[in-house]
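Hi L.,

As promised, Transposase:
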Amino acid sequence: MIRTTKRKVQRGEDNKRKIAREEGISERTVRRIVKEDMKSKSYKKQEAHFLDEDMMKVRKQRCQTLLRRFQNDSHRSIVFSDEKMFTIEEKFNKQNNRIIARNIEEANQRGRIVKRRAFSKSVMVWAAITSDGKSPLVFVEPGVKVKSQYYREQILDRVLLPWARRHFGRRHWCF
């Protein structure tokens, strides 16, 4: 039984339920054989971007170019920025956030129903970082649409540029 289970796993049969059913043993036994006897672990399949040979060559060349470009530690003077919208509503994952109850009424009383608003309260926050510092946070006023003019005038000119001049001094920097 253990030998045939091991053989099936080594051949690439990954469905532990199917192996347990075929061998007439419990799934727990199959899991124990895989973990303890075979010193192995079960991994989920993961999707990844398909790369053909040409794409891999291009990526390798670009990586080598970046390594050459940043040999003198110039990458330490790059400023990265991002913005994030924070909402006050609870985020939940239907699959993982569960309510344990005896019946549906009890589950409803314990918070099974999560109510959503069409336009919940939120705040947008912008920040920038470099290898040795961080900019002040920018809280965008509610209802403001961040378009190019607003971004340039209110964030880059009023916050990033003065901070970068103070932070870097006479050093060269890149945004």
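Residues 74-168 form one domain.

Thanks again for sending the construct details.

K.
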